[in-house]
Every structure is written in structure tokens, then in C-alpha cells.
Amino acid sequence: MDPEEFRSLGHRLIDWIADYRLRERDAGVYPTVEPGEVRSRLPAEPPEQPRDLLEAFAELEPLLNAGTLKWQHPRFFGYFPSNADLASVLGDLVSSGTGQLGLNWEASPALTELEEHVLGWMRDLFGLPGEFRGVIQDTASTSTLIALLCAREVASGHAQERGGLQGLQSPLVVYCSEQSHSSVTKAALLAGFGRENVRPVPTDAGFAMDPERLAAAVRADVAAGRTPAAVVASFGTTATLALDPLEAIAAVAAEHGAWLHVDGAMAGAALLLPECRPLAAGIGSADSIVINAHKWIGAVFDCSLFFTRRPEHLVRLMSTSPSYLRTEADHRTTQFRDWGIALGRRFRALKLWFLLNAEGVEGIRARLRRDIANAGWLAERVSAEPGWELVAPAGLQTVVVRHVPAGMGPDDVDAHTLAWARRINRSGKAYLTPTQLHGRWAVRVSVGALPTEREDVEALWRLMREEATVPAAGG
Amino acid sequence: MDPEEFRSLGHRLIDWIADYRLRERDAGVYPTVEPGEVRSRLPAEPPEQPRDLLEAFAELEPLLNAGTLKWQHPRFFGYFPSNADLASVLGDLVSSGTGQLGLNWEASPALTELEEHVLGWMRDLFGLPGEFRGVIQDTASTSTLIALLCAREVASGHAQERGGLQGLQSPLVVYCSEQSHSSVTKAALLAGFGRENVRPVPTDAGFAMDPERLAAAVRADVAAGRTPAAVVASFGTTATLALDPLEAIAAVAAEHGAWLHVDGAMAGAALLLPECRPLAAGIGSADSIVINAHKWIGAVFDCSLFFTRRPEHLVRLMSTSPSYLRTEADHRTTQFRDWGIALGRRFRALKLWFLLNAEGVEGIRARLRRDIANAGWLAERVSAEPGWELVAPAGLQTVVVRHVPAGMGPDDVDAHTLAWARRINRSGKAYLTPTQLHGRWAVRVSVGALPTEREDVEALWRLMREEATVPAAGG
Questions:
Q1: End-to-end distance of chain A based on CA atoms, in angstroms?
Q2: What proportions of chain A, in percent to the nearest 5, are helix, strand and coil?
């Protein structure tokens, strides 16, 4: 496409996106298509000849309107906030538009150096010690996989240079909270540890990892001749945003020389607030930390921030130095290709740079404080209301609730919980995500969409009470 | 950022990108900054308060102009073409702008179904058998890692559900061409196989894998009690775009039940041309194939197409089913979270959809044919010119050359090769990538930037002869 054609179409699409975001606030949150419906409305064959793009887009547009969950809707309370702030969308546009591909420093000096620089800003804003170095990955799943690969190589004396995991005598073991995100076990399995060598550690009443149980599990493995390779602590579990006690966990990891990875994908954002940092006491001892800038912080996906105090292990793990990638500047610059799985890299720091400049750090902080206050307000209402219960301590901006009609047994409460959440979701008036805790269903309310104000949380609370008390016709 | 502010700034940035691409054609290809220069011009502290974004961008803009390699320049002949067609940039803008995040079907039905649909189009356009299913990954590095993880689990009877690689008796072995991309060995090491269990198979005079040597290596391993888990064939090596003989390789893999992965990251694009498909005879027997849409085909990075005939193994490898991700539609829809490492996914099919509609399949084919003809023209000139040699058979659009002044010894030729390539690169008039073949330097000319016409290749050839014959003052 010619730059002039791009200019004219680009203006149209910028307007379309602005309108999409404006309309989004009035539209239902929930997609209005059935499985298979989008595909059934797409042409069977690809276009052989160039088409008028506006005409083609006119066919796609209704599918985009009907076939999307409105993640940035003021009444989106599902999963986690994915704010995709429009400033960061502009940063991403500049990234795509300049067509950069970071294979090494020379392939895009600005990409490399802006990433290093902005990750230094973020490290300091999170209050992490200066020895941490940062790099952008796509997701926390990948970041955690990378952490476990580092752990594997450190614990095995870099066995990848020899027989890999296949040559080890003493099996390496990974520990995590039984409430940890599914990506932790997935990463351990992908890294080759095997499910028998993953230890989900029981949690306390507040769903945070019990460090005594961790210590006991580690001792048992050591006694049996196994090697503790990694401990993954959750700073904010998925179900309830429980915060594992990092200081006590770090002590166990340090005693046994295990790599400590902190999964702060969601709640790590709270480190931007100095008043929240005591909740993460001990995080500075971690070997690696992941905090997603593409969740509550507001950058458009994907922008997962991976920090490590021991980049030399990461680089040793990832480094290849084929001739066609070697340039004169290599020894004087950071080669982010050696900081992750992918060789090619997008110019992702631009999303963060645009977001930080548009909102300002204080602007982001004010938004996070607003959300925590709104979640606190909801938690109080739920606690005070007969028939309703807080299933977990309110974790920052996540409130996990259950409605228990008088005299109803646990199986019926499960069905009831799924039914009222489903009614709310299907109504399009708000979106919530059910979750299981010790085998029983509850509903998560994750407060933090950019346009979500107190009145939206009030409206949600009214809706929850209405939908949980109607007769469950066909629920 | 408010949608109205986005609208006004978005128009400005669309214009800026159009101008960047127009200016790019007149600018030098090479970045004009020194290591550290970009960082030294960035503010030490992040902005505490919101800034006027245009004012802030005005500070960034000179760094973007000076600090980028111009990958879309008509005289970019480095690495591989990364065309970032502006139509696909618009698709990526719609992706970011709609803020979609594909965790499962319900989280974005359009994202899921457009990806399935467009990957079906691409499979057919590449002439692959209908049983292949496709998914978009970020890069070929990741795609190859996923393929080797599938291979590992199939060969071990899904050992990840037990003790992983740590519990195996018979070591699993991976085979690849000694000319394969660095990401292949990297993937094997990340997957835990260990370097001792990676076999780089020698190549023939044209740098393609020798299937006899492959068969011999496999036989030796089997005799020694090891298990052949995977064979990675290169359809287009990095150094010379050599095409491994897939049919013969597939026969060896099939005989031993090893997973056959075809790395067609770059040259796979040629499968869009029916006349090139005989070069890939046998590809339909592969278990998995990667072809990057973000290289020669023209989509903006990242858009790596991964196809597999055995998605059930991929899904078994990757699948997790935590409660908070389960929805009613799960059993009726494809869950791409189980087709890769990352849980969250961008709406990447839009880049392809925009590209295909803007260029049309015939438009893309015409461009590829133009590039192959231009590379052929250059190869003929090089062969005919005294002092110049073609180091490898011209592979589609890649020409690998060396200039050998009369009477110069091999070490001096190496220094001379690096020197003239460096002079061209530093001049900004064109960009080339040196590479090592059997320990000796040569220069790759990768033809295929979107605006590259015959006159650009002619200009490059003049420049090569000029720079290779000037006195090497200061090398």
C-alpha cells in the first residue's frame, strides 16, 4: 500500500476506532454472536485481486462490533482490566508504522535503547533494587517459562550445554502455590520438569501460600535426593489476588539455592503506589519478577515486563551468535534477542512511553487508587448484605463473592452462582468471571477498567442483587 | 486517553507515518546514531504529570528518524525482507484499537474465528493438504520451539504428565541441517534435549541437508539406544536459502516415527507460487510447518504461521483448563490458548486480512515473481563478472556472493569481504548482511523489499563493484 493511500485510509480507521470506543460505552459488554457465526459470514475464498479496502472493511465491521467482548467497557469486571489505553494504541501504531524489527542493536537502535531506558524507569517506579534489569516479553506465561528455564539451567549447572534434562541424576523440582496461575504449571511442564516434579503448595485461609508448608515440601524433596530448582510466588493469585508472603518464601528459596520467581502479572501494578509496597516486602530478593503493563497499568496488549537480578543466566540460556547476526556494535550494546525466546522483536517500548507521557505516573497512580477504593466500597457492601459473602479477603481491586440463599446446599449454590453470573453476562450490562475455590464456584469482580467509576460499581452491585434473587428460570 | 484526543492525535501520527515511509525512500538505510546515543537523549526520569503528547513526540521523533534501520527502504537487502506493508499496519491498528485479548473464544469470538478462517485460506494458498490446521505465533523461533515440544511429548508418550524429560531412559535426539537457523538449536536446548542430543547433519555442495547423512546419523543413534524424536528440515536456510530435500528427509523421519518440522520461515512464501511448489515436494508429510507472513509475504511483524497435521498433540501439550477460563462455548469452539505458549493473544489475523484484501493474492504473487527475477538477474551478473563468485546456487530471491581479487589468500578475502560490505552499509546507500559459510565470509543479498525494483538491484550491483575495488583504506 502506497503511503498516500495509507494516509487517507488511516484517517478513516482512526475515526472508526474513536467511534468504536465511544460506542463501546453504550453497547453491551458481551459479544452477540454464536459460535461459528463470524466464520459463516466471511468469504470462503481469499481475494485474488486487490479490493477497495473501505468496501472490504465495511463487510468486516459488523463482525468486529458484534463479535468482540468489550474489554474496555466501564462495566467490564471480568478476568483482569485490559485497558489498552488509546495513548498506548498510538504508540503501537508508531511501532507498526516504522516497521522496525529488533534482531540486534544495529537492526533498530531506537527500539533497543528505548526499551532499556523505559524498563529502567519502570524498575524504579516499582521500587525494585537497581541491580534488576528489565526486558519486554509478550505475556506472563512466557515470562514465567523463561524464569523456569533460567532456574533449570542454574540448578543443573547449565546442563543444556551437555545432555540437558535428560542427563541429570537428581530430579529438579518446582514449587508454586496451589492457587498459582495455570501458566505456572504449564511453564514447568513445557520446560520439561514433568508433573511429578511440580509441587503445588497448600495455602492459608486467605489463599496465600503457606511458607511452612513450602519449607516442609522442600525438606522432603531434599531428603529424597531431589533438587529444589525454583519457587514461584504469586503476588496476586488469579482467583482472589491473594498475595503470597514473599519474605518468608524468599528465605526458603535462598536456603536451598532455588530460583525465586515472583508472578506479579496483575497485582504487581500496585507497586507503583508507595503505600502498597510493604505488601511486597522481600520482593527485592527475587531472582526474577513479571509484571504485566498490559493489564491494570493500561498499556495495550502485549507488554509483559520481565525483571531479573541475574541477566547473565538468562543471556547464557538464550544466546546464540550466528554470523549473520553479528555486528560491530554487539559488544557495546544490549542484544535483547538473548533475553527471550523470539529472535525478532517488536518496538513495544513505544506503548509504554506513550502511556506514561499521556497519563503521567501520577495519573496512573490516581487511577489505581480510585479502583482500590471502589473495590473496597463493594467489599463492604457485600459483607454487610445478608445472604452475600466475601469468599476471600478483598485483594486490592479484586472482590470475590458468593450469594448463598438461606437453606441452599453447596451443589445448588454452585449452580445458582453460575446461573446469576451467566444472566449478568448474557444481559450485556456487565461482565464477570466465575472461578472455583477449593472446588466451589464463586464470582470474581475485578475493578479497574479505565472508564469505571464508582457509579459503575454501584450499578453492578444493584445488578448482582437483582440477578441473584430472581427465580432461576432455566438458569 | 479520551477517544476525541485519540482522534486528533491519531490523524497527526498517521500523517507522520506516511511521511516517514515517503522520506525513508530518500533517506540512508543505515541508522546514524552511535551506541548509547538514543538513551543519552532521553529524559532521566519518567513524566510524573501528563504531558502534551505532540510536544513529547517532537522530542522522540528525531531519535526515531536517526535511530532506525530502514527495513522498508528500496535498497534494503539485509537479513530478509520485512515488508510491514502499510495495509497490514492498518490491520494492526484495528487490532490495538479494539483492545481485544484472546484468552478463549468468548473473550473475542471475532479474533478466534478470523484467525481460523484466514489460516485456512493461507493453508490452501500454500497448497498444503486440508488436514493441516493453522495458528499464528509471534516468530519462527517460537513456532520451532513448539514443534520440538510436540516432538518431545510424542516421542516420550507425553512424559510431561509424569517425570518429564527427567524420567526418560532412552535419550531423545533432534536432527537438523548444519545450515539450519540458530533458532533450531536454541529451541532444542530450551526444550531440554541438551546439546549432546542435537545432531547438525552435514550438507551437500548446495548447502542442503544430505538425506543419506541424516539416515546414517539416525541409524547410529538407534543402534546406541537413543530415540530419534524430531527432524527439522529447512525449506530455505538462513545463509543461502538452500532448500533441504523434503521428500527424502520425510522418508527417514517416517521410518523412525520422528516428528518432521519444516522451517520455511522465509522461503515458505514461495509456496504461494504454483511453479515453486515442486521445490517443496514432500512437505505434505510434515508434522508441522512454519512460514512467516511477516517476511517476504508482507505482513507487519509479528505474524508467524504455524501449521500442523496433528493438532491433538499440540493441544494436549499446551492445554490447561482452569475454572476462570472455562465458558459454555468451549467445547464448540477452538481455544487458541491451547495452541501456543502464551495465554493472551493479539488479534493478529487482521494484519493478514488487510494485506490480502489490499494486495490481492495475485498482487503478492506478482511481487514475489518480480523479486525472484531480480535476484536471478543479479546472480547472472555476478557469475559473469571476473573476480566475483556465486558462493551458493541462487536460492529464489537470495544471492550469496564473494569478491576475490586476483592472488588474494582466504584470510585476506575474509577481511576484504567484511570491509566492502561495511563500506556499503555505512554509506547508507544500501544494506547487506555478511554471513559465514564453512568458516569463510560471504555477503548475502536478499531481494524483496516492497519498493525494490530492477533499478535498485542494478544500483546495488554498481555499488558492490565500486566498493569492492576501491583501495581498502582502514578496512
A1: 51
A2: 50, 15, 35
B366/A contact by beta carbon, under 8 A: no
Q: Which helix (H) or strand (E) holds B289?
A: strand B288-292
**Record: contact B159-A194, CB cut-off 8 A:** yes
A341 in a structural domain: yes
Closest partner residue to B71 (CB to CB) among A31, A51, A101 is A101
Residues A113, A209, single domain; the answer is yes
Domain final residue, candidates A49, A81, A113: A81
Chain A neighbours among B 379-398 (CB < 8 Å)? none
pLDDT in tens, A385-401: 999 999 998 779 999 99
pLDDT tens track for A246-292: 999 999 999 999 999 999 999 999 999 999 999 999 999 999 999 99
Number of folded domains that form chain B: 1
Q: Are residues A163 and A38 in the same domain?
A: no
Q: State which amino acid sits at residue B425.
A: N
- Predicted TM-score (pTM) above 0.95: yes
Whether A182 and B93 lie within 8 Å, measured CB to CB: no
ipTM for this model? 0.96
B59 touches chain A (CB under 8 A): no
Measure the CA angle with vertex B374, ends B373 and B379; round to 5°. 95
In a domain, residue A339? The reply is: yes
* Residues A294 and A352: beta-carbon distance below 8 Å: no
Quote the CA–CA distance of B118 and B121 in Å, as a whole number. Answer: 5
Which residue among B3, B60, B359 places its CB closest to the CB of A22? B3
The CATH number of the domain holding residue A57 is: 1.20.1340.10
**Averaged pLDDT, groups of 10, chain B, 475 residues long:** 96 97 91 96 98 96 96 97 97 98 95 98 98 98 98 96 90 97 97 97 97 98 98 97 98 98 98 97 98 98 98 93 75 91 97 98 98 98 97 91 96 97 97 95 97 98 94 48
The reply to whether A127 touches chain B by the CB within 8 Å rule is no
Residue B159 is part of a domain; what is its CATH number?
Answer: 3.40.640.10
Is there a domain that residue B449 lies in?
A: no
User: What range defines the domain where residue B319 resides?
Assistant: 100-346
Give the closest-approach CA distance of B443 to chain A in angstroms: 9
